[in-house]
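User: Please predict the structure of the protein below. I'd like the answer in structure-token form so I can feed it into my own downstream comparison script.

Assistant: Understood. Taking the following sequence of 237 residues as input:
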Amino acid sequence: MSLAAELHAFFTSRYPGIPAADRAVMECAGRELAESGLAEAALGPGAPAPDFALPAADGRTVTLSGLLAEGPVVLTFYRGAWCPYCNLALRALQQHHDAITARGARLVAVSPQVPDESLTLTQKHELAFDVLSDVGSEVAGRYGIAFDLPEDLAAVYDSFGFEMQRVNGGHPRTLPLPATYVIDRTGTVRWAFADPDYVRRAEPADILAALDSLDTPNAIDANDLNDATDATDNPRQ
């Protein structure tokens, strides 16, 4: 099963159980985010990838330049451990971690949560790649994918018990779009995926294809790939 199919199956089983008033707020915010053009304006193929120095869940500081010294980098941004779609996407990346490293690349994930909150207990034992904390989504902002939740949606998330004020280190409304970048050793973005719909994520197969293309001169945009990421029709927030 593709990641898109797995995400869509989870969505169709879970979403109807959310109260109708909350669904209306989520859907409205999703439409507004899609119409904002943020995803289209985000960093894309051919652009230099902004360097960063971010804390890992184990206390180390990880830099993009340091990772690139060892090979290409697959950089993925996710909303947080409270997001079940993010957890499914991270699990899919873990399942493809060996294939990514076999291509000489490093995989790293970034969320706006503080280090102690960036992983679920299960993930802390299962993930073989670095998970970094971008509190305030400052790095996500440099990649053009940071946005602020509307107040009514933030209130809905509070009602769900996500505790975003605490887990995001005092930045409860700032999140990144789900986004993934393949960056070559020169620091150039060669493939990019960013979507305002949190149910849509980069397919691991497409990431591997992008890594396989690094010996060719042309950058690739995920929007040019005809894959299974169109699992749902309407963006949601």
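That's the full token string. The two ends are 24 Å apart (CA to CA).
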